[in-house]
Amino acid sequence: xxDAFISELTKLAAADPARVLxxxxxxxxxxxxxWETFPNQFINAGVAEQNMTAIACGMALEGxxxxxxxxxxxxxxxxxEHIRNDVCYHDADVTVVSVGGGFSYGQLGVSHFATEDIxxxxxxxxxxxxxxxxxxxAAELTVQMADIPGPKxxxxxxxxxxxxxxxxxxxxxxGRTVADGRDVTLVATGAILSEALTAGERLREAGYSVRVxxxxxxxxxxxxxxVAAARETGGLVTVEEHTVCGGLGGIxxxxxxxxxxxxxxLKFIGLNDVFPTVVGDQDYLRxxxxxxxxxxVAAALSGLGHEKQPAGARIGGSG
Length: 319
Prior knowledge:
The chain is α/β, with parallel strands linked by helices and about 325 residues long. The chain has helices at about 1-15, 30-35, 50-60, 70-75, 80-90, 115-120, 135-145, 195-205, 225-230, 250-260, 280-290, 295-305; strands spanning about 20-25, 40-45, 65-70, 95-100, 130, 150-155, 175-180, 185-190, 210-215, 215-220, 235-245, 265-270. It has twelve helices and twelve strands. It has a seven-stranded mixed β-sheet with strand order 2-1-3-4-6-5-10, with helices on both faces. A five-stranded mixed β-sheet has the order 7-9-8-11-12, sandwiched between helices. Helix 1 packs parallel to helix 7.
């Protein structure tokens, strides 16, 4: 996703000299072509992410369109006060770009995990929050976000959902119905959509009709899509590579209550209220913490009342 973002930002920078990329001493190799092509539109702030954010805000208040860039927890949690008090309070045109959302940097341990960022940032006024599911979504949303003034958070993942490219369906603020169904809806954000897609296939093989939603924009979220799923299907399972405290599951629950809609069931697949202590690659950590397709299937079957169904047996859904 980071390559897709940089590719589009390079095009945007060529057309607009006011676009400036500021890195926290990260991205060598990935950012090389950008800084060689646009030396006057690139700043390496060093390992000083708080200063990076303050610089971006100051430049934005002078008419620049700034992007801060580093590993997800460094661009967000390390400089949260600066995002809140400098960028968001002044409604500055700064896009906070994170690489490695969720467990992307799994071998480096909890200090490099970004599993609370969505919950924290969406609580701050003025900021938009976006988590693409695939590189081509990241590219499309990078372009669309460039036309939206004010603070924005772009959460990029090392993984990808692996969906076919259908660029015309990607619209900022609107979720996508990746697959339609009536028995259960799987709602995912970010590249962990891949686990929801795998789970959906397994559930279909068991006889269920499964709807899958990709919510790349979390603030503002597509409330109509969520409400329709709650009304039209038997229940919802949310899937996120993030804590269940205030993340996608909380967003879906808030939307349902706001509109007075009670889904048949609502299950959350995400990190429980713990600091992860295991290290390993992204797929391993999803399995270790119950964020994989197996967990999604189990949650859906539990909500549908078939959690004890023997493995391999056909379970009666609406087909």
